[in-house]
Each structure stands twice: as C-alpha cells, then as structure tokens.
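Hey,

Quick one before I head out. I ran the complex with zinc ion overnight. Inputs first:
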Amino acid sequence: MSDNHTRSPSSKDDSRRSCWVCFATEEDDREASWVRPCRCRGTTKWVHQNCLQRWIDEKQKGNSTAKVACPQCNTEYIIIFPKLSKAVYLMDIADRIIYKTCPFVAGGIFIGSVYWTAVTYGAVTVMQVLGHKEGMNVMEKADPLFLLIGLPTIPVMLILGKMVRWEDYVLRLWRKHSSKLPFLSFFFDEYSRYARIPAETAPLSDPISATRVLCGALILPTIATIVGKLMFGSVHSNFQRTLLGGIAFITIKGVLKIFYKQQQYKRQANRVVNDYPLTQDLLGSAPSPTQ
Ligand SMILES: [Zn+2]
Ligand SMILES: [Zn+2]
C-alpha cells in the first residue's frame, strides 16, 4: 500500500521534512514514506513511517496492544491494523478468553487440591482418633455433605487452636500476680528483683514460626494417640484415650514452655553491660568476654 498524499511534498514547509528518529531529510531518501502522527508543529512533526514503527516496537516491549504516545506532545498514536478475517478474529477472541481465564482456573485447581488434602487429613485423623474400624463406621454412616464440610474443618480447627497462645497469657498473668503469691515465686524468682522489663519478642512475625504452627497443629493427633497409649493404656475407648493423651501432652508442653520462657525472660531482665577494661595492657591478660 503506497501513500501518495504523504510521499509528495506539496508545500514549502513539507520540503524541509526531517525525521525526528533518524534525522534524515526528504533529500536523503526520496522513497521513504512519511507520517505526521501527532499534534506537534513545525518540521519536527514529520517522522518516517518505518522509523516510528520501530520506535513504537521498542516502547511496547512485545505487548502489541500497549498504547504509545508522542514523547513531545503526549498525543496517543492512532494505530490501525489491517482488517482480520472472521476465522482469525474468532481465534483472537478465543486466545484472549483463554489468557484471562487461566489464572482463575489455576487458582481453582490450587484451592481444590488444598481442600481435598484437608478432607483426606480429616478422614485420616478420624480413623486415628477413633480407631480404624470405628472411624470407618462413623464416616460411612454420616451424611456425605456433613463429611465434605466437617472433615476439612478438622485441620483448620487444629491450626486455629494452635494459634491460641494460652501459655503467653498464663505467663503474663503470672508475672503480674507472682508477687502476691510468695510460695510460687520460689520457682520463678521474685519479679521485683528484675533490673528492667525486657522488650517483648513478637510472636508469629516470621514465616518460619508460621510453618512451626502448621507442623505442630497437624502432628497433634498423632502425638495425642501416642501419649494416650503410653499414659492411659487402661482406658478402653479409643476416643477418650486419645483425648486424655492430647490434654496431657498440651498441659505438660505448656508448663515446660512457660518455665523455659520465664527463664529466658529472667536472663534478659538481669543482663548487665560491663565496663571496658582500660588496664588490659598493663595487666597483660585478656578479660573474660562473658558476663
Ligand atoms: Zn527516519
Ligand atoms: Zn507530538
């Protein structure tokens, strides 16, 4: 397709055309096709069709639908594509629909897999807690819809339960009231003796502690079963034994955690910064860096 209108210079102004991309003038290349694509005035409004196309390609960086404007006057270029045939037009629409729906489909598949993993985990946990045979019986008798909602709720509730930091709450109460209970402070030292109140470390602030919550929550039924068998072997009901095992495990672990945290708190509270030993050279011995 040739463009006779822009190729032949008609006025005096047009004879001084100069391409703002390659700086060539009308005299340099008589064959090139020209275009004035924007509101710019004077000789700089002209540009070679080919030079401008190359410049637009660079600006679009492979995205052929991106809008491009003149860098001087900010006019958006009017880019016209040749008419599409019907078949190509339909393919173009199909391509766009697929491009837009794929993220949703992938997200749906991901959520679906997480859901089915949760259902499987719930079913395994039911069999673990109730015993294989009884668990199977209960699930076979239950309403399928109830199972589809109830089973994935099991891991969710375990994780939510694990996120309740009841040990921290007990510890805070303890620190508040330990001065009123002298015989208890025998274990945990006197609160009033602390040189300072250390800065609290924020729980759940990093992704590693999130994975810890996840692992701790999901492994709890297994641990509860084991502890139940070890400590409450005489209880005949599987469910009661596992429940007792779980409660015992959580209580023991909580007490140990409270003790450990309180010890760390005390260490932080009673830390001291030492003087730098000025007489180090005279004495001829290195100071101990600890304490
Ligand atoms: Zn040019
Ligand atoms: Zn312009």
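The chain has three domains: 1-82, 84-163, 164-273.

Talk tomorrow,
K.
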